[in-house]
Amino acid sequence: MSSTEPRRTALDATHRALGATMTDFAGWDMPLRYGSERDEHLAVRTRAGLFDLSHMGEITVTGRQAAELLNHALVGNIGTVKPGRARYTMICREDGGILDDLIVYRLDDTEAAAAHYMVVANAANAQVVLDALTERAAGFDAEVRDDRDAYALLAVQGPESPGILASLTDADLDGLKYYAGLPGTVAGVPALIARTGYTGEDGFELFVKPEHAVELWEALTRAGEGAGLVPCGLSCRDTLRLEAGMPLYGHELTTALTPFDAGLGRVVKFEKEGDFVGRAALTEAAERAATQPPRVLVGLVAEGRRVPRAGYRVVADGEVIGEVTSGAPSPTLGRPIAMAYVDPAHAAPGTAGVGVDIRGSHEPYEVVALPFYKRRK
Question: How far apart are CA 333 and CA 307, in angstroms?
């Protein structure tokens, strides 16, 4: 295979047999949709959906000083993550710009002499994150290992997902909290079962060896038949995360923004011991945000039917007040929605006179608080 051809997941033949529309995403050939993306979206909101997320980038960090390395390399306090738990965090440049947002799982038990972490990066940034962690590991008694080929990743998301998964495992799903993971067996397949996801629904992500991916996919499909589970592609994953107000790297998060610019300054833990990459710049960013608030990430709901796209200008009183970062039709709301960074003076929910410049026409939009959708618990 030439280096220019996209990589294929272990489930590639399965997707094609199901008639998936495939697309090149971050160097991977991935299913965009299997049929109607709206139907797939609504299945996750009301029943369950099954996703192949094997393009995500798994990086293992182990060793006596694994926690110290991650505390130095990332903005979060990884040293306080307990075994079996996970944490959302970011890796930043020295100037505070966001290189990627990450989930870090602590996989060892409390008896382990050396901690064992799995860092999960976005597919498009996996090599950047791997290179940065490897470089930042200098001087630490810790090993950084590229494990992208060691895992396939399947996700079951939606209100019926706990019941579907419970029928295939004896793992304690009731005791598994959000942002936690435990080793278990699903349909006879060894897996890391994590209660995480990117849809705004309850659900699970299952990390398994690639050679077990097809077997597990088929078992989940059979187990979900009575519950209305359907295979889902990346298209509905994007509209699901947009409704849930979840940021997407390259849209709401970029190297041009610090976590404070993105309204996610809470992930930066200045109180942790020792220096970390970007501390000085992020200290300045935090002080700047306190005195001169940056543009605020808000939700926009269309009054009409025209869909805003990333890069479209947000306007008020003839002035540009912001920019759309993500936009799409919302199957749940039945109207187009968008996330946008806007000037603080126009960020309050209900602010009047806000529009989006769509090809020269200023379409009216309502400013709303994020997320657009929150599941009932």
Answer: 13
* pLDDT band for position 3 (cuts 50, 70, 90): low
Q: What are the backbone dihedrals phi and psi of residue 296, each rounded to the nearest 5 degrees, phi first?
A: -105, 135
* Measured distance CA(33)–CA(15) in Å, rounded: 10
pLDDT reading at 1 higher than 50: no
Peptide bond into 371 cis (omega under 30): yes
Query: Beta strands of 77-179 (E only): which ranges?
Result: 86-92, 98-106, 115-121, 143-146, 152-157
Tell me the one-letter amino acid at 208: V
Task: Give the pLDDT confidence of 23-48 residue by residue, as tens digits.
Answer: 999 999 999 999 999 999 999 999 99
Helix, strand or coil, per DSSP, at residue 346: helix
* Element containing residue 282 per DSSP (H, E): helix 279-291
Element (H, E) at 8: strand 7-8
**Residues 136-145, mean pLDDT to the nearest whole number:** 98
How many other CB atoms sit within 10 Å of the CB of residue 121? Answer: 25
User: Which among 76, 59, 58 is positioned nearest to 67, based on CA atoms?
Assistant: 76
Is the pLDDT at 86 greater than 80? The verdict is yes
Between CA 250 and CA 260 the distance in angstroms is 16
Strands across the sheet containing 21-25: 7-8, 28-33, 21-25
Kindly state the tokens that stand for 329.
């039709």
Determine contact, residues 238/192, Cβ cutoff 8 Å. Answer: no
Q: Which of 186, 107, 106, 109 is nearest to 152 (CA)?
A: 186
Q: Which residues contact 123 (CB under 8 A, 6 or more apart)?
A: 25, 26, 27, 28, 55, 56, 57
Could you report the per-residue pLDDT of 190-235, keeping only the tens digit for each?
999 999 999 999 999 999 999 999 999 999 999 999 999 999 999 9
CB neighbourhood size of 317 (10 A): 9
